[in-house]
Amino acid sequence: MEKSKPVMGETVEALEARTPLRFPREMVVSLLALAIAWEILSKFVPPFVIPSWARIGKSVLGLPADFIAITLARVAVALALSFVLGLGLAIAMYLSTGVERYGKPIVRLLMAVPVVCWILFAVLWFKWVEFRIAFVLIVVCGPVFLIDFLDGMRGVPRELRDMLRSFRPSRTHFFTKLILPATLPVILTSWKINLSLAIRVVTIAELVGAVTGIGYGLVVAQELFSVADVFAWTLVLVAILFAAEAVVTRVEERMLRWRT
Q1: pTM score, two decimals?
Q2: DSSP secondary-structure letter at 259?
Q3: Is residue 148 scored above 80 in pLDDT?
Q4: Which of 22, 84, 172, 213 is deepest in the core (most CB within 10 A)?
Q5: Which residues contact 235 (CB under 8 A, 6 or more apart)?
Q6: Do residues 194 and 145 touch, judged by C-beta distance below 8 A?
Q7: Could you report the per-residue pLDDT of 22-43, keeping only the tens digit for each?
Q8: Comparing C-alpha atoms, which of 76, 74, 98 is closest to residue 206?
Q9: What is the secondary structure of 51-81 as a DSSP string?
Q10: Is the dihedral angle over the CA atoms 157, 168, 149, 182 positive or is it negative?
Q11: Which segments of 96-128 does DSSP mark as H helices, in order?
Q12: What is the pLDDT of residues 57-67, one digit of tens each?
């Protein structure tokens, strides 16, 4: 069976997961229909409301590439730090009931604070813009990593844990040979969730205070009342998110090949 051919009754999500770097026919048709409808509508509506694809394409070509690179670098660094922090705290909570009992309520509290409030706190507390953006991303994405990892570790079957403990493994072997491999599907799913979350959060954070990045580009487009530029930046964000999710899904497919 070829991977790109849909199976009878298979959902679009399942087909996308099975062929992450290819586009299912249903997706291509629906997006093409939306693009045609948009172009037709742009003929009857003023361009400051719905610009044509030609205007949006011209804006895309004129966007500063360094803004895109800066935003991607901010997301990559913050996600890496959030991952390390979340994994370390999840292991600490897994090993110590006391750490979990006292630490989990604080994590829940951090997750309940709206992103806008974290951005305002960062502006009030920190002077350096890069530190503000990194702080907001880490405090939003870190707890998500932590909770996902902890739930994944708790989900490892007790029979497997007892079986491995019968061999008297060291703590390092217990985690590297059982817990982390068994938690790998959860870790990869958490990465996909946090990628989407981080791209949206960094854009909002860059709207306030930053003088570079995609968020700042959106601010400039808004000040110039350039609707085409706003749509161009939006397309760039969507393309980045799709590409990042496709890469993670591809990695997931390779690392979890044993499940198929």
Answers
A1: 0.81
A2: G
A3: yes
A4: 213
A5: 56, 60
A6: yes
A7: 667 888 899 899 999 999 998 9
A8: 74
A9: --HHHHHHHHHHS-HHHHHHHHHHHHHHHHH
A10: negative
A11: 97-112, 115-125
A12: 999 999 999 99
Q: What percent of the chain has pLDDT over 90?
A: 51
Distance, CA of 165 to CA of 174 (rounded, Å) = 8
Q: What angle do CA 183, 185, 186 make, to 5 degrees?
A: 65
Q: At residue 170, what are phi and psi to the nearest 5 degrees?
A: -70, 165
Contact predicate 188/244, CB 8 Å:
no
249: left (phi over 0), alpha (psi -120 to 50) or beta: alpha
Res 9 pLDDT > 60: no
